[in-house]
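Lecture 7 notes: from sequence to structure.
We start with the chain below.
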Amino acid sequence: MTIMPRKETYIDHREDLSSGVMERTVLQGNAMLTELNGRLRKLTALLLEGRGLYAILDEMEAMLDNPVVVVREHDKAWLSRGLRDTEPTEIWPLLQSLTYRQLDRGAGEGYVPLTNSVRVYVKPIPEQKTKQSYLAAVEHKRELRPLDKLSIDRLASLVGMELANVEAVREVEDKYLDQFLHDWLTGKIVSEADWKLRAEVCGCLIPEGTALVAALIGLPETDGSTDRLREACRLLRSERGRTAEGLLVAPVGDDLAAVLSIPQEKLAEGERESALFAALTELLESLKEHLGEPELKLYAGRAAHRPDGLQGSWTQAKHARQVAEVCALPGEVIAYDKLGVYSLLYLIPSGEEREQFLNRYSLPLQMADRKGGGRLMETLEMFFRCNGNIKLTSERLFAHYNTIVYRLEKVQAILGVSLDDPEDRLQLHLALKLGQITPSSAPN
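Predicted structure tokens for the same chain:
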């Protein structure tokens, strides 16, 4: 006779099995929670000790047995030791993929596949008053475990705190640097001892035998915007923007100033002008890339061979910008030494001779324009810009060809000159430029 087991026996077995599974799950959860708390305590201790971001990333790499990276817009990536110590050629494809744009495009959280078939686990870093950043763990040695991913999710907040510390330190340093460069360029640092002390505090030690060049960075359509200038400064001082060796930047008034240090051997006698121009051109291309401004221009003074000569170089850079804009000089790099005759016009001070020259060639046309003479000054200036081509002048001014001819004939009649005479054309052209340039004394 078959004896059927009691129903209660099956129920007891199911309860024992369920209880065992729950106990194992709780134990595993407790073990994971204990290890997670240990990781959090270790990273928190590094943060409180002020060991810095790289120490935190190196410790995270040891915990995860995989390298970790912090990426942020406009900055170079912060790498843990496993990537920092690797040959650049080996990790270059990986670094090309580990960009802010790539991670942001990949939804910015969870697993993100990279172009080189490497997976990274990404977590947005919570930050206040700073741009979005990401913490990424690269599956380089092994796959990440659930504990590893949970650790990254929790540790991202600690990394965000350290990034906030980095930003706070940068902000203070930038203020000191801004004031130092402003005082240096405007001649408010009067003694060499004072200059050396402040340069050391700001980390701006200039090696011996270095020439200094002050340049004005011509940002298009800034209108002296303080926010635009400070944003440009921030980009150029960021980890990504620190590519031009020896470059210092700061807002000075409504302008963005740059100080470029060049070793003297690069300014050999007889080749100084070409070497300086090449250095400025290289700098301009770097500035265009990091500021995202393809229409950028650079106005530079002469090289100063002593720190106290930088004020004169800065004054020359500003003069170069004014002359280039007034005289519509071509080119993206305008050096003071290349202004030629325009620098001479700029240096002509107010005086009787200057006024007589302008009264002879400019004032009669200005008076005629005020009386409704037909835009004579504008037409004459465009005529010279078009190299005497009347057809091109009419197109640029959106006026009929015969209208331009009439205006030019009226100019000749009022002034008693002939535009076919090279000497008369020279006098008129100089008068136009001289009237546009503000009189000034020679720069230092």
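Points to note: DSSP finds 17 helices and ten strands in the chain. Residues 25-164 form a domain with the Beta-Lactamase fold (CATH 3.30.450.40).
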